């Protein structure tokens, strides 16, 4: 997330949320189509969903550690909304734990457990969409009033540094891939030139190959 003088670039949150919504919309179908004995495909889909759960966990951990405490201190009139966000994070975290457990079971026996995993992913998509909608409509205006650009930037830094090094480029590329041209311009403006070059010449190809393998 970028630093800018006029305040936090809260519109970037919508880009992150858009990526989660898109990935969770397609994940249940990928799981339901798994077949016994297709070990390469099972591994590919399981790894994809596990990576999605890890990205979601990192995203929410950053908010839990860096955002909600500041808002609780600075926005006492909005404590009910902040508490709602934390309560919803708890619901999402529980579903993420259930999905993670089912991933291990699906790896061993996809026919028995694929329906349970797909149903849980559908449930997670519904709960997460509700949470993100409330966050975008009710919490981000509070963030704009009480969080500085530097504090917002630290939230983005947390997300990237918490991501394993070998996944940082493709994670960044996934974010930029769902951004509009103007949103992408804002993100890229704050990235060092070497990272922009890596995204352009390596990251985009890496994501295209991964998506082609996953979605066909």
UniProtKB/TrEMBL annotation:
CDD domains found in the cross-reference section: Hr-like
Protein name: Hemerythrin domain-containing protein
Pfam families given in the database record: Hemerythrin
InterPro entries per record: Hemerythrin-like
GO cellular component: plasma membrane
Domain Hemerythrin-like, residue spans: 10-142
Highest classification ranks of the organism: Bacteria, Bacillati, Actinomycetota, Actinomycetes, Mycobacteriales
Signal peptide: none
Chain coiled-coil ranges: none
């Amino acid at each position: 997330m970028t630093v800018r003088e006029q305040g936090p670039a809260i519109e970037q949150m919508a880009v992150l949320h858009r990526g989660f919504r898109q990935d969770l919309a397609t994940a249940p179908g990928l799981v339901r189509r798994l077949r016994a004995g297709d070990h390469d495909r099972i591994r590919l889909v399981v790894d994809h969903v596990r990576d999605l759960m890890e990205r979601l966990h990192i995203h929410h951990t950053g908010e839990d550690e860096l955002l909600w405490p500041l808002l609780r201190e600075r926005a006492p009139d909005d404590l009910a909304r902040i508490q709602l966000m934390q309560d919803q994070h708890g619901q999402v975290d529980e579903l993420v734990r259930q999905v993670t457990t089912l991933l291990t079971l699906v790896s061993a026996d996809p026919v028995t457990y694929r329906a349970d995993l797909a149903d849980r992913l559908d449930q997670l998509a519904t709960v997460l969409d509700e949470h993100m909608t409330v966050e975008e409509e009710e919490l981000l205006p509070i963030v704009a009033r009480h969080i500085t650009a530097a504090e917002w930037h630290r939230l983005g830094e947390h997300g990237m540094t918490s991501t394993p090094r070998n996944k940082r480029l493709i994670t960044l590329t996934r974010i930029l891939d769902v951004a509009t041209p103007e949103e992408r311009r804002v993100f890229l403006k704050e990235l060092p030139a070497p990272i922009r070059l890596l995204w352009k010449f390596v990251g985009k190809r890496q994501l295209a190959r991964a998506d082609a393998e996953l979605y066909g």
